[in-house]
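Milestone 3.1: sequence recovery, worked example.
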C-alpha cells in the first residue's frame, strides 16, 4: 500500500522519503534521509535511503530525539561524597592493595552510599550511587542488587584477603586514635567519648566495642 497523499504532503526535511511500516502506533510512517545515489549505466540514477531521522505523526514531522535519561544525571550530590573521599583515602588504598580494582571500587562505593544513607535497601543503592558524586570519585562500581549479593558472597568466602585487609588496617592504628570495634555491647560512662550513647540494654550510657 502506498503512503497516503495527506502523509506525503506533510512538510519535512529535503532529500527524504517516507516509508509505511504498516505497524500500528506513532512510528508507522518513518522518514528516512537519502544517503547517496547509485548511478546505473544507460539507466536512471537510483537513490539510496539512509537512516531514519523522524516520523510523520498527527500531521507533523517529528524528529528522532535521544532516549530519555540517556544524557545521565546532571546534578549530583557533592558535599558528603567529597568528605567521604577525603577522609577514607587510606581505606581505599588498603582495599586496592588486597582486592582487584573493580572489587575495591565497588566495596568503597557501597560503603560510601551506606554512610550517606544508612537505611537504604540494596535495590536502591545503584540509584543513590549514580545520583551522587561518588559515581565520579569511584567510577565503575557494580551496584545492582545481584552484584552486591555476589560481592558479599565472594568476600565472605575469601578469608585470606579479609585477614590481609584487617592487618593493613591495624598497621595504621596509632596510640592517639579513637577506635570503635563493632561486636559486644559494653558499658561506657565516659563524658568525653563522642561514641557514648544510651542503649535500651543498659540504664547507663553504652558503647559498641
Amino acid at each position: 500500500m502506498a503512503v497516503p497523499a495527506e502523509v506525503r504532503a506533510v512538510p519535512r526535511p529535503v532529500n527524504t522519503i517516507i516509508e509505511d511500516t504498516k505497524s500500528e502506533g506513532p512510528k508507522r510512517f518513518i522518514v528516512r534521509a537519502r544517503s547517496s545515489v547509485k548511478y546505473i549505466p544507460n539507466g536512471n540514477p537510483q537513490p539510496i535511503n539512509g537512516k531514519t531521522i523522524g516520523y510523520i505523526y498527527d500531521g507533523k514531522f517529528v524528529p528522532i530525539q535521544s532516549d530519555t535519561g540517556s544524557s545521565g544525571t546532571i546534578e549530583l550530590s557533592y558535599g558528603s561524597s567529597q568528605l567521604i573521599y577525603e577522609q577514607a583515602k587510606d581505606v581505599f588504598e588498603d582495599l586496592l592493595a588486597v582486592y582487584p580494582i573493580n572489587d575495591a571500587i565497588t566495596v568503597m562505593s557501597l560503603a560510601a552510599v551506606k554512610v550517606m544513607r544508612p537505611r537504604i535497601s540494596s535495590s536502591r543503592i545503584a540509584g543513590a550511587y549514580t545520583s551522587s558524586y561518588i559515581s565520579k570519585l569511584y567510577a565503575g562500581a557494580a551496584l545492582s542488587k545481584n552484584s552486591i549479593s555476589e560481592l558479599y558472597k565472594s568476600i565472605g568466602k575469601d578469608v585470606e584477603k579479609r585477614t590481609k585487609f584487617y592487618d593493613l588496617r591495624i598497621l595504621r592504628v596509632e596510640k592517639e586514635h579513637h577506635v570503635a570495634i563493632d561486636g559486644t555491647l559494653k558499658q561506657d560512662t565516659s563524658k568525653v567519648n563522642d561514641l557514648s550513647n544510651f542503649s535500651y540494654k543498659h540504664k547507663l550510657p553504652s558503647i559498641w566495642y
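The chain has two domains: 5-63, 79-174. Residues 205-209 have pLDDT under 50 and may be disordered.
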